[in-house]
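Running this now, will post back.
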Amino acid sequence: MPTGPEQVDGASRLLAGPAPWAGLAPERRRPIRLGAVVEALGAAGQRGSAPGSSAPSEPLSGWLRLLAPSVSVSTSNPAAVLVALFEEAGEARVVLTRRSSELRTHRGQVSLPGGRLDPGEDAAEAAVREAGEEIGLDAGAVEIVGWLHPLLTGSGESLVLPVVGTMARRPTLAPNPAEVARVFDVELAELVEEGVFQAAIWDPYEAWSQEEPAARTIWFFGLDGERVWGATARILHELALLSLGVEAVG
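Update: finished.
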């Protein structure tokens, strides 16, 4: 619920409650080691390249079983993203990009490298291939270690499958300027620093469309001079919870 009359970016968003990790002492938030993240994936049952076991002819079946039965989603054009992690100076780091302003959709937004699955590909194959095309990431340097929960974007038109990969060292990257305006990386511990994460509730009296107005919670991270929101923020939110061993609230 909103904490008061404070507003974010104009009159339509109200500040929501604190981050789920707000009660953790600073020493519980740092360091976040890469090995600990991989162990946390195992403890959560999220190791491997996809949820459960999927037949090659049905690479989405394990992912779809994680969605609520009431959710209706088109599986004709799914996308995969790579949560690419490496460790430096004792801290796990994640690779992020800012999309080119010339792209047709989501222009200028911070995202994880990824894109649509080609026919016959599974999520892990697509995520690694797209990372190579977008930022020049060497596929041979990536070990797929786990997955995060699938999510829908917008009004449910896109199914996004997050795959977690690790690298032994900082990668050498060469972003494709046609797709990527900037590539950068941040510590996972930075995600959970004070003031970095913010949740906002869109005013339920402000209509989103011709349908009945409804409150929606949006998550944001302020990272390295960039504002991260949308599907990328939701993926980073799960990654932060998993890394700290904190339960989701609400």
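The chain has one domain: 13-244. More later if anyone needs it.
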